[in-house]
Amino acid sequence: MAASASLEEGDRHGRLQRHSHHHQPRPLRPGEGALSRLGEFLAPLGKTPLLVSDDVVWGILGQRATDSLRAAQLPVTRERFGGIPTAAEVIRLVGVIDRTGADVIVALGGGSTMDAVKAAGFLAGIRWVTVPSVASTDAPTSALSVIYTADGAFEEYRFFPKNPDLVLMDTQLVADAPAAFLAAGVGDALATWLEARATRQAHANTMAGGLPTLAGTALAELSWGVIWDNALPALDAVRDHQVTPAVEKLVEANTLLSGLGFESGGLAAAHAIHNGLTAAHQTHGLAHGQKVNIGSVTQLVLEGAPTQEIRDFIEFTTRVGLPNTLTEVGLSVDDEDDLRRVAEAATVQGRPSTTCRSRSPPTSWSARLSRSSGSPAPCGARRTCPLPCSTWPTRSTRTSRRSPVSGC
Questions:
Q1: Catalytic residue among 21, 138, 288, 338
Q2: What are the start-end ranges of the E strands in 275-345?
Q3: pLDDT per residue as tens digits for the range 97-140
Q4: Scanning 114, 202, 227, 339, which has its CA 20 to 30 A from the CA of 129?
Q5: Catalytic residue selected from 21, 22, 23, 271
Q6: 13 is a catalytic site residue
Q7: What is the pTM of this model?
Q8: What is the DSSP string of 197-254?
Q9: Among residues 274, 312, 335, 338, which one is catalytic?
């Protein structure tokens, strides 16, 4: 059942009054070689598609997308994406839609491209489609866009009354992309269960505007389990550009399960801290999921989670290749002004941080962020860890069903 929604009078920016609690995306078409069927799937949705991608993605996918549309007797019109999903970029794309007469807009690329395309499609009143080139976020399936300033700082969420009309996920594209993108998707998706759990415990509202559903929360937890079981072998396969069952499962967890889970399960401190981190220029070169992972660690500390849970999370995400410390994202405990800006931006009223059980002031949040550049990791890796070395387990106690770790 798709969520029902009504727009406030005169508001064309996607701020919604939502009355139902569960989201379900339109058709998800995953599979190896799925891009070759783009034209086939677009034909029922519109006759004048507008393809949006940056130059790098178009250089990789452009010919295959063009061939597919021509085979379906659809015109090929491509517009270059400006790089950041700003309000100005969204309005520019709306102008392109009007000028070309497009009746369906297609995002080919990563989360930023999809955010801009979804927002532009909504404002123009046409259908929108996502064709991810990587599985680095759950943006492909979601009914929202994240809008940033021209400098790359978080500005606002925009919510829409529906999910994309089509999500076309070619798993071979995911396998051909650098493994770091898939790892970033793990960082984004792992937060889904941590935040859904916090939302449920706080009896807080979800992104859909109501209390979390059992289905949304269960899908968030399912995403967590699939990731723990499949992330490491999937990343190994992608480094060899292979599509394996583990890759297929991880792609589904990173996109569909996480997308359903966060919309119908709720957000909390992890994504709020991501938004706060965008206030620090040092983090602007990082992937979304890398910053979210810093937020997940911080949320666990804020909640007072058991040391074993924090330890397992840090070990696992270290093996995945995600940052767990401020040092790894270009910050340090000496950057007091930057950390305060991060904490203040993360705790703005109405942001997801209000879901977290912690009610600490920004000064306390910045202190907890600072703790993330603490002690050296016992594995000898070139990183630091927010846990003192004395709390790390022996090798015999590190492995568990949900933590398939045999050492850092």
A1: 288
A2: none
A3: 999 999 999 999 999 999 999 999 999 999 999 999 999 988 89
A4: 227
A5: 271
A6: no
A7: 0.77
A8: HHHHHHT---TTSSPPPHHHHHHHHHHHHHHHHHHHHHHHHHHTT---HHHHHHHHII
A9: 274
